[in-house]
Design brief:
Largest sheet: 6 strands, parallel
Radius of gyration: 20 Å
Distance between the termini: 56 Å
EC number: 1.1.1.60
Pfam families: NAD_binding_11, NAD_binding_2
Number of helices: 14
Strand content: 5-15%
Protein name: 2-hydroxy-3-oxopropionate reductase
Keywords: NAD, Oxidoreductase
Number of strands: 9
Family: Belongs to the HIBADH-related family.
Shape: globular
Structural class: alpha/beta
């Protein structure tokens, strides 16, 4: 019988499925719940247990990990008679790895504490590839003791794991991450169109650029997307649109100006409005191509 904590996993999407499977590989017992039967079947095939409800998934769990798209979904799975707070045992630890507003995380921690349940916010960066390879960057908000308890679990999921401050701090850092990523992708997309229109060998150009100061994890991860016009979602435009709303609102609340970020937020929104919301965020290239008079 394993002495490792029992884990409930809520949300088995593009990120959640490979992450939960990495915990199974590390020897943890994982009971999962999501709305898609094929994702539950995938978890069971990997050695986990599929639950028929949130209540069933969390009732015996020591640690409850949530990975859902946005604040409304976090609230939906957390509150109400069928939600986590009403069905988790006292003393359980919720690790919310969704990317949501900092205030949602603060509110969840406060409401959970009234039930004797602990919470840390632990959003991630690294996309689908980082989830599969277990090399995610994980930014955490919460109490030191809760972070320390969760750390061995998080180490099975990521490579860079940092406690950034009190509840909500992880989400604030994630918002900053999404700002940097969006601006970086936009700059790369503009460079790609500029290079192609100039007749330069794009493969060679991106290789040499990535070896210098212009190089970045974004360019490394997204270079093939640009070269092959492969926009299969690793992280969807729809979700980055949501995240740009989070960082824009949060920055306004603290009085921080985001002049470039505001422009990129509008470009992300326009791409979504043109029907590309389900594509990978590297599809910002399509927006630049349209502005440059190309058919896409």
């Amino acid at each position: 019988m394993s002495n490792l904590p029992k884990i409930a996993w809520i949300g088995l999407g593009i990120m959640g499925s490979p992450m939960s499977e990495n915990l199974l590989k590390a020897g943890y017992s994982v009971t999962g719940f999501t709305l898609e039967q094929d994702k539950l079947d995938r978890l069971a095939k990997a050695g986990g247990s599929a639950a028929g409800s949130i209540a069933e998934a969390v009732k015996d769990a020591d640690v409850i990990i949530t990975m859902v798209p946005a604040s409304p979904q976090v609230e939906a799975i957390s509150y109400g008679p069928e939600g986590i707070l009403e069905n988790a045992r006292q003393g359980a630890l919720i690790v919310d790895m969704s990317s949501i507003t900092p205030q949602t995380s603060v509110d969840l921690a406060k409401n959970a504490a009234e039930k004797g349940i602990r919470v840390i916010d632990a959003p991630v960066s690294g996309g689908e590839a980082g989830a599969i390879e277990a090399v995610l960057s994980i930014m955490v908000g919460g109490e030191q003791a809760d972070f320390d308890e969760a750390l061995p679990i998080l180490e099975a999921l990521g490579k860079t794991i940092v406690l950034c401050g009190p509840h909500g701090s992880g989400q604030t850092v994630k918002a900053a991450n999404q700002l940097i990523v969006a601006v970086n992708i936009q700059a790369c997309a503009e460079a790609v169109v500029f290079l192609e229109k100039s007749g330069v060998n794009l493969q060679a150009a991106l290789d040499v650029l990535n070896g210098g100061l212009a190089g970045s994890t974004v360019l490394t991860r997204k270079k093939d997307n640009f070269l092959n016009r492969d926009f299969k979602p690793g992280f969807r435009i729809d979700l980055h649109h949501k995240d740009m709303g989070i960082v824009t609102d949060a920055a306004r609340n603290v009085g921080a100006a985001l002049p470039v970020g505001a422009v990129v937020a509008q470009l992300v929104a326009s791409l979504r409005a043109q029907g590309d919301g389900g594509l990978d965020h590297s599809a910002l290239l399509r927006a630049v191509e349209r502005l440059s008079g190309q058919q896409v």
